[in-house]
Amino acid sequence: MRPSLPEVHTAGVAPTHSDPGLARTATTLPEVDALVAGCFACPRLVAWRERVARDKRASFAAQTYWGRGVPGFGDARARTVVVGLAPSAHGGNRTGRMFTGDPSGDVLVAALHRVGYANQPTSVSADDGLVLTGARLVAPVRCAPPDNKPTPDERRTCAPYLARELELLAPTLRHAVALGAYGWQALLATLAEQGWHVPRPRPRFAHAATLDLTHDDGRTLRVHGCFHVSARNTYTGLLTPAMLDDVLAATLA
């Protein structure tokens, strides 16, 4: 569910909060979502997301951009999380929903539909009727970064949101798909801090790599590596629909 907050932040409006650590107090995923949408912790990212929301792409000039932190999206009882990098400037930052309104979202949601996680093959807006069953889309960084490159400090600042989502999904979570090396490393770092037995040195990212982890409490989780669904990867054929389908289908076993 999309948080019931103003669609775009404008200069002069007081921040909701600047402490991602509040995520640790959230008892539900909607509470985490609201904290993400109200976060103003990283000045560089806040300035960029708001600039993009004001200086819109010409093809979206008539639309009101979300211009805030972008919450995760999907099933609160997911067996699988898909971990990206960060929202795109004119995708999630515009629509307010992860992997929505850009080429990456088009590719990912079509694949989620083919393997049975999504009720439809398209993801164009926050009110388009898309429903995910058994899967949730998340990211280590929740604001669109300049040049799609968050800094290490920004990732660390944002980490409590991903950590709390994983904790709240723990009763049902069995698989995690990391899109690209950034998602892979960020996910493993978070899991290691949460009591998962992540090997050291940490395994390197590779497409179709799998890593079976156990937790201190006996839970198990299989991590899958997948090339990111970026336009560069899909347009050049580095990641094909069949390759993506194979990774996602493996989470159904």
Automatic annotation (TrEMBL):
InterPro entries: UDG_Type-4/5, UdgB-like, Uracil-DNA_glycosylase-like, Uracil-DNA_glycosylase-like_sf. The keyword Metal-binding applies. Residues 71-248 form the Uracil-DNA glycosylase-like domain. Residues 1-22 are annotated as: Disordered. The keyword Iron applies. Keywords: 4Fe-4S, DNA damage, DNA repair, Hydrolase, Iron, Iron-sulfur, Metal-binding. Belongs to the uracil-DNA glycosylase (UDG) superfamily. Type 5 (UDGb) family. PANTHER family: TYPE-5 URACIL-DNA GLYCOSYLASE. This is Type-5 uracil-DNA glycosylase. It comes from Flavimobilis rhizosphaerae.
